[in-house]
Design a protein that fits this description.
The complex is a heterodimer of chains A (about 100) and B (about 400). Chain A is an alpha+beta fold and about 100 residues long. Chain A has two helices and six strands; from the N terminus they run βαββββαβ. In chain A, the strands form two sheets. A four-stranded antiparallel sheet of chain A has the order 2-5-1-6, covered by helices on one side. In chain A, β3 and β4 form a beta hairpin. The longest helix of chain A has 20 residues, at about 10-30. The radius of gyration of chain A is 15 Å and the shape is globular. Chain A starts with a strand and ends in a 5-residue tail after the last strand. Helix content of chain B is about 65%, strand content about 0%. In chain B, α7 (about 135-140) packs across α8 (about 145-165) and α13 runs antiparallel to α14 (about 310-320). Chain B is an all-alpha fold and about 400 residues long. Chains A and B meet through α2 and β6 of A and loops of B.
Chain lengths: ~100, ~400
Amino acid sequence: MRYALLIYEDEAAAAALAPVRRAFAAALAAAGVLRGQAALKSADTATTLRRDSPLHDGPHAEAGEPLAGLYLIEAGDLDAALAWARRLPLGDGAVEVRPLAEAA
Amino acid sequence: MSPELDRAAREAGGRIIAALAAGFRDLDLAEDGFAEACARAAATWPRDGVPRQPAAWLYAAARRCALDALRKRAVRARLSPDAPEPEPTVEDALVSDERLIPDERLRLIFVCCHPAVAPESRAALTLRLVCGLSVQEIARAFLVSDAAMFQRLTRAKKKIAQAGVAFEVPGPEAWPQRLSAVLSTLEVAYAKAHEDAAGSGAHAGYAREILDLTAALAELAPGEAECLALAALVRYAEARRPARLDETGAMTPLSQQDPALWRRPLIEEAQAYLRRAADLDRPGPRQLQAAVHAVWCGRKSLDEPPRWGAVLALYDALLVWRDDAVARLNRAVALAEVAGPQAALAEVDQLDAQRLAAFRPFHAVRADLLARLSRPKEARAACDLALALDPAPAERLWLERRRTALGED
């Protein structure tokens, strides 16, 4: 199965953790489980579209820590995905582990 | 439902659902297959007679129903052409012996108690899938509506299916987290079974499941002291079941139960588990709770004075691990016997009364202490509060009797 590790954290944490994250991504790649990754610029660079509304200058959810980046990984089951998520360097933020919707 | 079917479904339902769930790795398929098999049994047994091995019949039928549903699902998804109805296989013939139903309950309980499943759903899911209780029974035990419980279970099953929770017993490296979730869930499940003092009918069977499961866990993890302690704990508590009701059907408090009615073989099993736990020299809250039970179950007759001092000391130790209202209230009951009701009431009144407003034992213990302090008016009020919280019939009778003994305003 493929899982997304969605990282929610503020900009300062994302910047501080960028170097160790590269090592994490290298570990994912070395294990042959990395399927994709992205680090996002800060949430105030986001523009949000909603139907029948003017463009919104900012992220979809203003409250809470914004989505800051993600990894796509291949894992046998939820426990394996959670094990990788635990190794992800993290400050005060959170990482959400979600399975990708794909044909079984 | 015929009594034979009812009994077979109760006694073997958990094992059958677990075996199917582990085989097909699909909780819904297992549950639906078993329900369909029961429906077929209800239709055919009265006509053809009850099979010689009702549980084995149900397992074979449930398996065929599940296979059939899988086939239909595949056809709907156009993944494969329509296959013929599977003929009864050699394997089906073999399971004419119910001992051949594989016991996958342990595997299933680790699935139901996965830490990724919400804690309030784990016990409910375990009771449904491993112990075979109906949604209505579980809803009653957790004081929620049938619809709310159905939703909670559906959500949990969906999470397990879609998030990719493995249908495996985890390896020892994952035990600290996984085993603790399983033990807590079994504690909640057993507490629900135990609450109904009568334990007659519906719940008697599932207390049996919990005895089986704790034994299986203890076998799986013989080096985990808390796991052994839980096996001891439920055995001590179950051993006293025959003494928990008096001849009128009212609850009998532990200190007034006749030890001659307790089931000695279960107590001996419990002692063996607790000794093994103690030998591991890794104390924990479940060992202390089991030790309290052990003190009580060591009583030989009603003439022997209860060892309240030992009970109090154990609760003091338990508070270090688990400082909650239940432990505090149990400690107060012992304290009342050792230091008098005044001291005990002072402790109880330090608890957060507002948070415990809907907790029956809080009011019941207060009623008892107030009565002993000759404050009947307040005792009556506390008794009424407990009675208003919908106690099980046996506890209601007991509370009503105490209420009557306190006289009127």
